[in-house]
Amino acid sequence: ETGVTQTPRHLVMGMTNKKSLKCEQHLGHNAMYWYKQSAKKPLELMFVYNFKEQTENNSVPSRFSPECPNSSHLFLHLHTLQPEDSALYLCASKVTTKDTQYFGPGTRLTVL
Amino acid sequence: QQQVKQSPQSLIVQKGGISIINCAYENTAFDYFPWYQQFPGKGPALLIAIRPDVSEKKEGRFTISFNKSAKQFSLHIMDSQPGDSATYFCAARASGTYKYIFGTGTRLKVLA
Hints:
The structure holds two protein chains of two kinds. Chain A is mainly beta. Chain A has strands at residues 4-7, 10-13, 18-25, 31-37, 44-50, 53-57, 64-70, 73-79, 87-94, 102-103, 107-111.
């Protein structure tokens, strides 16, 4: 158990649905990340939050909307997704001043 | 210039053999090079990491070799075991940033 939890673990949604992914860490970290993992492609950084402030938005389409209410929680709000958005969405966290990221188990998203 | 190129895409090794995975980069601002191990259904977990001021780092059966002039680094798994069967990712991070760039991954299978 890495200390980073993600819910739900699996999600199937239609293109017109609205859903949210949740990430939670109780490691005392203050930087949190969303990544997209697709088959045979590198992990794609989507968003980075540092002390609740967004520091990176890697040209992610607006149908993905992140929210970081505090340093322990990170959400990814989804709406009007496309089938090509189907992937494993990984959350990670770290201490700002340290190098090591800790990943959650991911949410497997399928868009029909 | 932001890419990290990883090879091979897949690797099959006999039990007790040496597994070698290679990565190459272009950005000389990268100053931290981690390797992650990912099992099915799990998020990536840090295996071992190196900074460019050393040429080699060893932790148990896992060794990183780093060639700064060639901008290459590799992971060596000695005495490979079936339990090492997983996907391995190299990554790099530029100094002063929160952004990690990942390779495409290598699926390792160790035959019993």
